[in-house]
Each structure stands twice: as C-alpha cells, then as structure tokens.
Fold:
Amino acid sequence: MQETIWPPEIHTIVQSREFLKLRDTMRNWSPSGIADLMGQLPAEERVIVFRLLPRKLAAEVFEYLPIEDQEQLLKTMAKEEVAVILNNMAPDDRTALLDELPARATQQMLALLSPAERTIAVSLLGYPDGSIGRLMTPDYVRVRPEWTVEQVTEHIRRHGRDSETLSLLYVIDDEGVLIDDIRIRKVLLAPPLTRIAELLDHRFVALKATDDQETAIGVFRNEDRYALPVTDSAGVLIGIVTIDDVLDVAEEEATEDIHKIGGTEALDEPYMDTPLHRMVKKRATWLSVLFLGEMLTATAMGYFEEEIRRAVVLALFVPLIISSGGNSGSQASTLVIRALALGEITLADWWRVARREFFSGLALGTILGLIGFLRIAVWSSFSDVYGAHWFPVGLTVGLALLGVVLWGALAGCTLPFVMSKLGFDPAASSAPFVATLVDVSGLVMYFTIAAVLLSGTLL
Amino acid sequence: MQETIWPPEIHTIVQSREFLKLRDTMRNWSPSGIADLMGQLPAEERVIVFRLLPRKLAAEVFEYLPIEDQEQLLKTMAKEEVAVILNNMAPDDRTALLDELPARATQQMLALLSPAERTIAVSLLGYPDGSIGRLMTPDYVRVRPEWTVEQVTEHIRRHGRDSETLSLLYVIDDEGVLIDDIRIRKVLLAPPLTRIAELLDHRFVALKATDDQETAIGVFRNEDRYALPVTDSAGVLIGIVTIDDVLDVAEEEATEDIHKIGGTEALDEPYMDTPLHRMVKKRATWLSVLFLGEMLTATAMGYFEEEIRRAVVLALFVPLIISSGGNSGSQASTLVIRALALGEITLADWWRVARREFFSGLALGTILGLIGFLRIAVWSSFSDVYGAHWFPVGLTVGLALLGVVLWGALAGCTLPFVMSKLGFDPAASSAPFVATLVDVSGLVMYFTIAAVLLSGTLL
Structure:
C-alpha cells in the first residue's frame, strides 16, 4: 500500500531544498499518486518536484497530469526533455494534449517526435474531434493466422513491450484486414506447435474510426472485452480502443448531458477550474434565450388583462399552474433524453413514447387536478378567500391543471425527438426549455378555460 | 465480421421448424449477437432458440440476457439444465441474477450449485447492495513471490482457464494478504528462472469490499488498470473488480442522477420496460410534493391581492420573474450536483462554491434585469401598454429580476450541499425542487420591491 505524505510535509521538504530526500520518498509512489500530489502544489514547486523524478517515472507521471498542467510543464523544459516526454507518451493521451495546444505549438511538438511517432500522431490528429479515431492507440500486437503459438510467444517477447493491452491479440491477413481477435490466454494454454488459425472462431466486433465516441460506450457495455479493434471502411485494422478511455468518455458524455438538462451549455472543464467569466458566458446564453422566450408569458397575460382585472383570484393560481406543467414536462423530457442517450429508444419510437406519455400525463394531471380542486373546496368551506363562486373557480383550476400536466408530458417527450431530428443534441431540450414552452401555452389554456367556465359569473 | 440475419427471417425459420438450419446459422455468431437477437423475438420463440444452442454457447448467451429474460428462461428449464447454466455463469453476473429473484427461488438456485460455487455465491450475496463486494469476481490468478516465472506460466496453464482477466496477476503472502499486482506482460517478458519477488514494485491500489460502488469509478479513472484487487479490512485479497462492470455502474449512476435532476424518482429500469403504473407512481410522488410546495405561491400572491387589483400590470410579469429565478437555480444546482458526483468538490467547499455563485448570480441577474427593463422602456415608447408609470414599473421588474436570479443561484448551489449533509442524494435537489423554492420567495421579493417603488404612483 502506498505510503502517504501530506502536501505540507512535501512543502517543507521542497522549501528546505532536501531534494534527495524527496526523490527517495517519491521513488516508491505510483505515477498517479505523484500526479495527484503535484496537483495540490503551487506551480513552481510542481516544476521542482517533476524535475526530481527519474526520467522514466517522469514520463509516466506526465500522462496522469491534467492537460493544463502538461502545457505549463512543457514550457519550462528544454527541447530535448520535451522530446523524451512526448515520444514516450501513449499515443491517445498525446493526441489529447496536442489537440489542446495552439496550432503553432502543435507543429513545434510534432517536429520533436521521431519519424515513427510523428506518423502516428499526425494520423490520429486527422480524425474528427469526438470520433473513435481520436481514442485509438496503435500499440497492440498483430499476428498472422499461419504462425504457431511458439512463434507468437516469441513475437510478443520481442514486440509486446509497448502494447497497451496484451490480453488480446489481433489476427490480420496479407492486406492488413482484421480476421479475428483472440484472447492471449487461449494462446498460452495451447500446445506450442498449434497454428493460430486453428484457435480462431471468426467472431469479433470492430469499431469504425469515424464513428462517434458515444457509440463505443454501447458496444463496450454489450461486449465482454477490455479492448476493441478499430477498422477503416475496408476492414483494415488501424488501431484499438481500450475500455478505460471509454469510461472517461461515458463520464464526460453524462456530465455534458446533465449540464444541458440543467439549462446551461456544457462547461467542458471541472466546475471549480472554469474561469468565472467563461462560466457566466456559458450560462448567460441559455438564460437570456429562455428569458426572451418567457417574455411571451407577459404578452400572453396582457391579452387577458381585462379578465384578471375582473377576477383577480385567477392571477393567484398562475404560478401554481404553469409550474406544474413545467415540472411534468421536465420529467418527461429528462426520461426521454436519457433513454435516447442509452440507446433504449430510437427516433422511430416517438409514437410509442408519446402513447405512454399520454396515459402518464393523463394520470398525473388527474391527480394534481383533484388535489387543486380539493384545496380550493376545503379552503372555501372555512374562509371566503375564493368568494361565492369558488366552485367554478375550483373547476377551472382543476381542469387547467389536468390540461397543462398532460400537455407538459406530451411536449416534454416530443421535444428531444424534434431536437435530435433537427441535428441538435436531444439533451438541449432542458427542463427550463420545456418549462418555458409549456408556460406560455399553459397560460393560454388556463385563461381560455376560465373564460368559458366563468362567463356569466366572475367574468 | 458476423453475418446479419434479421429477425423476420429467423421468425420464418422458427415458424417452419427448420431447427437444424437455425442451429447452423447461429453457430458462427457471437454470444452477445445471439442475446441481442433473442431480445427481439416473442417469448416462446426465445425459448426455442435458446434450446437449440450448444450447451457451452447457451451458458455464454445466458449471461448477456437481461435479468427478466434470464428469470423467464430458468422457469422453462429442468433442474439439471438450470444447474449447468448457473454453475457456468460468471460469479458477478450470477450475483446480480440471484439478487433479483424472490428469496425462495434464490434458495432453490443456491441448492443447485456445486459446493465450491455455492460458497462463492453466498459470500458475494453477503455484501450490501451497491457495495464493491457485489461486483467482485473470485476468478483471478494468485501467485506467490517466491515462485519463478516458469512456475507461474505452468500455474496459469493449469488454473487460469476461468479467470476473468489474465492481464494481471496478484501476489499474496502466507496469510493471503495482497503484496502487489503485476502485469502478465512483465512475467512473459522475463527470463524463465526469475523469481516473482524480483519483478515487484510494491505499488498497487486496492478497493475495499464494503465501499460504495461509486468510489470505484473514480479510482478506475485515475489508475490505468483493467482490474483492481479488492481486500478486506486486514488487507487480505478477496476478489477483483473489472472495469467493464464499473462502466455499467457509471452509466447507471449517471442515469439515476439525471432522472432525479429531472424531478422524478430514478426508474431503475429502461424507460420502455417500466410498467406504466410504476412509472406514474414514481413521478406522481415528486410531482405532488412539488405541487404542495408550489401551493404556497397562491398563498403568497393572496397576500398581495390588493396590490394586484390596483396594478394589474404587476401580475403580467409574475411568470417571467419566477421562471428566471427557477432557471438560474436549476443551472447552479445541476452544476453543483454533477461536480459533487464526480468528486470535483466536497462538502467542505460550500463556501468557495457559494462565493462563485454569488458573483455569477450577480452578473447573470444584471444581464436579465437590464433586458427586462429595456423591454419595458422600448415597448412603452411605442404603446401605452404599461401606462404612464412605466419607469417605476420597469425599475421594479429589473430589480426583482436581479434579486431573483442572484437568489436562485445561491439557493440552487446550496441545496445539494444541504441534501447531502442531511444524508440524502444531492441529485434530489432537482431543477423543479429548486424552482419551487425560488418561486415562493421570488414572489415575495417582487411584490415587496413593487410596494416600495410604486407606493404613491400605482399603489
């Protein structure tokens, strides 16, 4: 178990320049542990600590650092040091770093790579942002079907040192087309002279380099593999994707969706690390758009000003009614957004979803409508707050609630489908967005019902 | 690449009783592909297809089926068949199935297991729901530090057949205490007579069996491992957890949080598979609670009935103002809920978060307040809709917006901390919950500002 030394102590060691002691202390730590510690140190001490690490450990620690810290460290290093670090990084982590740097810096970094590593880096950078190609690593073991188990073992001993995963081998033909993947255990357990071709079952699942990273999450959930091969359109093996990168993607996608559902642009950075002005900008956009939409409520209510003047009691229930519609819509849209993201439903399922939401909305609307009516009935038997005409008022509120909750469920479940059809992220049909939509129409519904039911009495 | 035959064709084959053809067709499919197909068939055909599979393939396919389908298939099988399937399942998948069955059925199933498998199953079922213990599999390779590379290779050849992952070996001492984990590649690449002890670096990260599954997500994100060892409180190795199970946990946790943020209880099942009555029940609870809270808005507005009667124009802006507060609160609470879930912030950070939200809320409130004031000013220069006193009305609306948006941000960021402190899931401080809270206080704020600014003119 790794020994824990808390930052203040490290701080003291750094301050008192006991560098040898520090180096000894860190030698037995895991790279992720050292990266963790560096994250808690001020920038200058971070550089000192990093400089003390043996070269190989430094390269490992570097991969665990957040991209901003990587950038900052690169600036303090000599060219030769940068070259060592970059050439030793896992290609997928390096792609993520190069992608973040300004174009000029990326070019400089690429120039520092060995010809082989440069070819790898450039090809990975060629895939679109968010595509599976960007997650690929070209470090894996390729074998030929005609090789024997003995030859494969020897091949691994010579070439397997850098490969990200050795639990799977990939079998290719003369053209580089992927024929099968095979677990290394199957090879280890077979007699040495068995040919690989005899061990194959020709059952494998491959990802496409240009596909969206989100699709990889679903495939990994279905398949019991730690790594999946990636092919181009001709079926040629061009890399592998490992499940740890997909776990990161899954967490990021969920974070993005959650931010959008909350009615803000996705932050793309940890909450605390997002500069205040950038966070305000990301939130202000949506907040202003929603505000402009919500202005229609003032316009809508303006049309019914005369009704409100004559029956002020109607105004009292406005917040209750529109918020109920918004809440019902928020439930429906959130459930549908997540079901779409998980692939539980597809665009073709709209009709089935709408039918479910119709019955749910009807049931929920009836429940709230009844509670609303009863509240007015009970209150009126004790006090005079709702006047002599409490019965038609109660009926108006009850029916409006039924209508608005049902409408909220239908609008809420439909909006994610519409967004998706229009090419937007369904998660953008956030709770606040649906609420705004339902608010305006809910008001019109409420006052229209009131005009019918109260005409002759209050209106 | 696997051949695709669409269900209608399979349906025809099943209907025409061409069982041999079907068996031949499926022989080359992956277990997950067959499970996928079975999911699209009606229940009776699903049973027929499953019966046609060779015994070993059937056991593999079984693990990929959803638990409800597993239950249903078990009912159609003879005891001996059930025993074969259960004894061949991966212990973690089996735990998930046994856990879903009624207690009586679980007992019957346990009786069908071999003594060794029964011991494993009972011990896994002993860990609390949602703990890492439930994800464990006891199939992994344990080695001793004094063994040579040659001995380890021989040991794997003999005992490694069932182990979930062979990319890592676990080194234990006489008492079973975990000393280190070691990548198999390191062993394969070493000379045959090297002792394992020479290859160890004594750097490893282990999970605790009783810890929450959520903690495993964070650890796997930090460590570059496909599997992590699980120890008891004495450090004794009792199992391993593989990253594919953690990917499932991460997706489920995100789904739960998203559902709660949308203002509903987590469904715990795919949207389409949730029976309608259960979905209505899960949504009705929160919707009714929010409705009862929102009723306070009617009470609050009742206090200002006289003001509304005198200045109906005030009522027109009620939806605009309360929804802006709700949207701002929804943004803040969602960002904080996700940051807490990812471990980016902890309970101790409330003060830092609140300070950020204070400045964000101030900026956002100023923006919306200005837009609101300008809209009233511009409208008033063209029409007479806001009357002669448009200036104090505009000022009231603008200031109320500033106050309500700021208050929304502060309340929204605080509520998740409060929920967490009280022992609830922070995600329960949903967008609708925060909105309800802010609605009531926002109304009081708005009418109080109006009473001050409009006294002597409109009021």
